[in-house]
Amino acid sequence: MKKTLLLLTCLLSAGCITKKATQFAVPKERATECVAHCNDLDMKLSAVVIISSSAGCVCEPRDAQASTGNGAAAVVGGAMIAEEEARQQEQQERQRRHQSPSIPRSQ
After folding, report:
1. Are the C-beta atoms of 40 and 55 separated by less than 8 Å?
2. Average pLDDT in the 26-42 region?
3. 13-20 mean pLDDT
4. How many angstroms separate the CA atoms of 76 and 56, rounded?
């Protein structure tokens, strides 16, 4: 019984595949761009959020003291990026379905 369980565990673990975190490389200049965006808003950069191949900036007021809210802001920013990416993927899927040739029905 133990040998069978061990063999089954080995077979199942060999089939696991880990997907890459991003499909494309995120340029290192993204952090510099985020600093510039935050400076334009008279704020300071708090975090850069990377989800898949998208990146977002989390800015905070310059006079804000370090707090636990920074993590929450990054989570919200990440959720917004994920939502936008899902919307774009859905739109691309609709375009693909619309562009695919329809098969005429036989009557």
Report:
1. no
2. 88
3. 62
4. 11
Q: Which residues are within 8 A (CB) of 77 and not within 5 positions of it... i.e. 6 or more apart?
A: 47, 49, 56, 57, 58
pLDDT score, position 42: 92
Structure tokens at 49: 């959020």
Can you tell me the mean pLDDT for 46-72?
Answer: 76
Rounded to whole angstroms, the Cα distance separating 26 from 98 reads: 31
For residue 35, CA distances in Å to 44, 49, 53 come to 7, 13, 19
Question: How far is 103 from 35, CA to CA, in rounded Å?
Answer: 52
Pair of tokens at residue 67: 């707090």
What pTM value is reported for the model? 0.42
Structural contact between residues 89 and 52, judged by C-beta atoms closer than 8 angstroms: no
Please return the burial class of 17, using the count of CB atoms within 10 Å of its CB with bins 0-12, 13-18 and 19+: exposed
Query: What are the residues whose beta carbons fall under 8 Å from the beta carbon of 78, sequence distance 6 or more?
Result: 49, 51, 56
